[in-house]
Design brief:
The structure is a homodimer of 103-residue chains. The first copy, chain A, is mostly helical and 103 residues long. The first copy, chain A, has a single domain (5-93), classed as EF-hand (Recoverin, domain 1, Orthogonal Bundle). The first copy, chain A, is 64% helix and 0% strand. Chain A is built from five helices and no strands. In chain A, helix 1 (5-21) crosses helix 2 (32-42) and helix 2 (32-42) crosses helix 4 (55-66). The longest helix of chain A is centred in the last third of the chain and has 19 residues, at 75-93. Chain A starts with a helix and ends in a 10-residue tail after the last helix. Chain A binds chain B through residues 1, 3-7, 9-14, 16-18, 28, 41-46, 48, 74-76, 79-80, 82-83, 85-87, 89-90, 93-94, 101, 103, and chain B through 1, 3-7, 9-14, 16-18, 28, 41-46, 48, 74-76, 79-80, 82-83, 85-87, 89-90, 93-94, 101, 103.
Chain lengths: 103, 103
């Protein structure tokens, strides 16, 4: 069975996570450095819109809010961050130009 | 600036949500019927793998766990469901063949 567009998008997210999570130890988790590399590379438009000139601080905020007890972000935490970014884009699709994901 | 692959994937999710959410009233929220239509159409592989022969019941479970006080699923709830599905796919990428998104 061929993947639908959304099934392909989901696999793209998983592949991106693994691409960055395997750069250092903790091969199935992201360090702050790995998350920073990923978001700068994969979400440049989002960062230039919402990071207020401080991309490293903005990404550290996302990281700190979703890291586990071992100080890394696992896939569930990663998906929470992806959800937050997507929620902000959804609001912007309705001309709410804030950059937070509160309702 | 051109969208990256992940920025495009994120917009694809938003467009799919709107495509189904606007079918009936509550134009920025999904009814059970709309969520059912969407998941059956967009995630056929996932359903055939994890719904244990009862796709309607499986989708109703996702819906009931994420609906708001007005009985519909808003975009945040939708992203939680998308996260749950993606978490299960991520586990399966590591040969954990269960269909729940617990760690």
């Amino acid at each position: 069975m061929t993947d639908t567009k959304l099934e392909g998008a989901m696999k793209g997210l998983i592949n991106s996570f693994h691409k960055y999570s395997t750069k250092t130890e903790g091969w199935d988790e992201l360090s702050l450095q790995e998350l920073t590399q990923m978001i700068k590379k994969e979400y440049p438009t989002f960062l230039s819109t919402c990071a207020l000139g401080n991309p490293d601080g903005f990404i550290k905020g996302l990281f700190d809010n979703n890291k586990g007890q071992n100080g890394q972000v696992d896939f569930k935490g990663f998906m929470t961050i992806m959800g937050q970014i997507t929620n902000i884009y959804h609001k912007r699709s309705h001309n709410d130009k804030t950059c937070d994901d509160r309702k």
